[in-house]
Design a protein that fits this description.
Blueprint (H helix, E strand, L loop, with lengths): L9 H9 L5 H25 L4 H8 L3 H8 L7 H12 L9
Protein name: Helix-turn-helix transcriptional regulator
Amino acid sequence: MEKYKNVTDFEQLIEVEHGKIGTESRNKYEEGTQMFIISEMLKQARKEAKLTQEQLAEKTGTKKSYISKLESAKGNIQLSTLIRIFEQGLNKRIGLTFL
């Protein structure tokens, strides 16, 4: 509990738990967080489109198992594949922001 004594906001909590931005531990945490966000967005968009994982895979030239891995944040994804899944499979545009 001592390590949380001076924590007053979420960013400080993340630093205590995963290190400062740029450290290996923090980079791994940030990567996992981004993959989780993408997986949830994919799952929600697929359900809104009323498609099964199998139907989405068929529309985008992938496999159901690949869509399943992405939706559970367990697979790596190439940007070109991500764009194809959202744009061709789900009729959604992707915007990227670099900070």
